[in-house]
Structure formats: C-alpha cells, structure tokens
Design a protein that fits this description.
Blueprint lengths: L16 H21 L1 E5 L1 H10 L6 E5 L6 H4 L16 E5 H4 L3 H9 L2 E4 L8 H11 L3 E4 L18 H8 L5 E8 L1 H4 L18 E6 L7 H12 L19 H41 L1
Parallel strand pairs: 1-7, 2-5, 2-6, 3-4, 3-5
Antiparallel strand pairs: 6-7
Helix pairs in contact: 7-10, 9-10
Length: about 290
C-alpha cells in the first residue's frame, strides 16, 4: 500500500460512500468555524457559486487564492449559501505530500477528501501533476495555492509558482480561472500561537473576509506565440523539461509563457488584496462610528 493511494481517490471507491461521509463531516466543520465560531463576509459569492454549480459542461475550473493558514481549505468554502456538502461539486485540491500524506491514515482521509499529493520542490512535471490534469480533463474544479506555502504576513501577493500556469497551458480544455483573496484565517489559526505552535482548535470571534474576483481569460494561442518569440533571446540553464506538443514549446518558451500567466494572476490577486483591505478599513470605520 502506497501513501499516495490513487485507488482511494476514485469516485467508485466503496460506491463513493467514504467520500460523501468525509465531505459532509468536513463541510460541517467548515460551516461551524466560518459561521458559528467566527464571522465571515464574502464579496461576489454568486460568481463562485454559479461557476461551481453551472459552468459549461466539460469546462474545468481552477480557483487560486493566497494561503494564510492551514485552515484556508476547507473553511473558506464554509460560507453561507455555498454547496459544501455536495461531494460531486466539491473541489479537488493540491495538497503538500509531507503534511497531508505522512502516514496511511492521513493519506486515506485526504484522498477520499479529493486531495492530490504534491511534493514541494518536486517541479511542475512531477507525477501527480498528471493526475491534476486528468481531473481538469474531466471538467472538474481544482483549487491551488500558487504562492506555494502559508504566509501570515500582511504583505503583497508573492511571486507565484509555475505549477498552476502549467496546468492552465496543458489542460485539454482551457480552464476558467477565478482568483480569490482572503484574510482573517491567520487569526483563526495563527502559526505562532503558543511557543511557536498552532492552537489545538480554531480560535473564535474573529472576522474572516473573502473577496472573489471575476473569471480570467487567457488567449493561449497569442500568448504562446509571444512566448516563443521572446524565448529566442533567452539563454537560461535547462532542467530537462519535455517539449510540449502540439504547440512545440521548448523549455525556454514554457518559462516565458508560465511567467506571463503567473504575472497576470498575481496582478489580479494583488488587486483583490487591495480591495479587501479597503473594504476591511471601511467596515472598521463604520463600526467605530456606530459605537460612538
């Protein structure tokens, strides 16, 4: 038995009963943390809900967000009105292998919870990126944290890893890409709560703010030609990446294309982050005026 347990991720595993049970249990936990223990405000929620429920048949969805805590997923889907209990609509997520797949029990839990193990530092062409592509080929929803790791600093969106961009390029059907930015999870689950450790349970009476953007469109044929043209002047060391067909992108062109896509996503996420801060400041100001 391997810790990656591909068989447990199949929807047919035990007629899907373990998956439904885990999705419902985790969904109940997310709802409790987001709505009962804390206050969650979501802006533009209908855009996400509509894409999850009724996007065109066969068209995959990739949501991307900043990564503020170990609770971002699943609690960010626990807001009121989101269909978090539906195992068929639930997201697939890229999850760190060294955290979520440390032993057989954890591996089984996260696998039936629709998580795909990713080895941090393993590169964008590692084995399980192909599994993520298969899910996109099926028209599924995939969530990624393109910054690559948790950061609880109130700082601009960091340079994005190329993994998400590579999935967008390599997917047989170009995915709808939806950026999301949130804050408040760093207070619900702080990394350094007690002697450098996280609290054993989520903290209460915190404010979570989630800002959902608009779907992003990428003109991949045009961007591919620009990447090929730009890459002719580059002389970077190679990593042995395969040539992408049918576009015939060599490694230098792939680097240019992935950078261009990542920069657009980063810019969109940073714009959402700025909007989120303004909304939060306005809310605090209004609360202060009411108290006076």
């Amino acid at each position: 038995m391997t810790r990656t347990m591909e068989w447990a991720a199949r929807g047919s595993h035990m007629r899907g009963i373990p998956r439904k049970m885990v999705i419902m249990a985790v969904g109940a936990f997310a709802k409790a943390v987001a709505n009962l223990l804390n206050t969650t405000t979501v802006h533009n929620a209908d855009t996400l809900i509509n894409l999850v429920r009724s996007r065109p048949l066969g068209v995959p969805l990739i949501t991307v967000s900043n990564h503020m805590s170990t609770l971002d997923d699943p609690v960010m889907w626990g807001f009121k009105g989101f269909p978090i209990f539906d195992s068929n609509l639930a997201r697939w997520a890229l999850a760190a292998e060294d955290i979520c797949f440390k032993n057989s029990l954890l591996s089984y839990f996260f696998r039936i919870g629709k998580c795909i193990p990713i080895t941090r530092g393993g590169g964008i062409y590692q084995k399980h990126m192909n599994e993520a592509l298969e899910r996109l080929s099926d028209g599924e929803w995939l969530h990624t944290f393109p910054e690559g790791k948790v950061s609880q600093e109130d700082a601009p969106i960091r340079r994005l890893k190329w993994g998400t961009a590579s999935l967008i390029v390599r997917s047989p059907v170009t995915p709808i890409v939806l950026p999301i930015v949130h804050h408040g999870f760093e207070e619900v689950m702080p990394e350094n709560f007690w002697f450098g450790r996280r609290p054993p349970f989520p903290l209460c009476n915190k404010s979570i703010n989630i800002v959902i953007g608009e779907p992003m469109e990428f003109n991949l044929p045009k961007m591919t030609q620009m990447a090929i043209s730009t890459s002719h002047n580059l002389h970077n060391p190679t990593r042995g990446w395969p040539i992408l067909s049918p576009s015939g992108l060599d490694e230098a062109a792939q680097r240019c294309l992935y950078t261009s896509i990542s920069d657009q996503i980063q810019t969109s996420m940073e714009s959402l982050r700025s909007s989120s801060k303004k909304l939060s400041e306005a809310k605090s100001l209004n609360s202060g005026q009411v108290e006076e």
